[in-house]
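To close the section, here is one more complete example, presented without commentary so you can practise reading it yourself. The ligand is cobalt (II) ion.
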Amino acid sequence: MNISYAQIFENNERWVAQKLQDNPNFFEELSQTQTPEYLYIGCSDSRATAEELMGARPGQVFVHRNIANVVNTLDMNAASVIQYAVEHLKVKHIIVCGHYNCGGVKAAMTPQDLGLLNPWLRSIRDVYRIHQEELESITDEGKKYDRLVELNVQEQCINVIKMACVQERYILDEYPIVHGWVFDLRTGKIIDLNIDFESTLKNIQKIYDLTNSEWVMSRNKNKNNP
Ligand code: CO
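Output:
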């Protein structure tokens, strides 16, 4: 199952040769610029890879991964990735992808002191609290665990939609669209949770409308009346 350190470099040599065989200019083109249309926010879990499960090539997906695919307002790492993807790369889709059997979600379900992980897992414990009634009505522990994985994705999508850069870009360009996925390790399939982006945005803007800045309004006016 594991890969040796030396094997990685052998694999890399083979990969380079294969790419050059398919397209002799592959790396020259790759080095020029990136224009990915997708931002993928997923779990760091070694089994839930981003590009491989999507069948995507280098240059197609901008990726951010952390424990249990959390988008926390005070996390400058996630915030910078999202801001850059939305403002500069102008991605059309933002995907938050969780996965069943997520160790981070499991740890958050366990009420105990996990040291340094406590503040990180609190975001997921908050998801549990928000949806406590639904979760505690599920008697099967496995099903409850799966459901918390899904609800965590849903709440992290909402956290993405709360961001000013996402709301502003959507007014200007009608994208990015935010999607929630779960990767099922047991089948290999991606499950689209079909989050209704438009209505979620509208709903949360009752509280988190960050689009009243004059900059957006004037940009929007110019866009409609060039
Ligand atoms: Co995980």
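Once you have examined the tokens, check your reading against these statements. The first helix runs from residue 5 to 22. Strands lie at 38-43, 61-66, 93-99, 177-183, 190-192.
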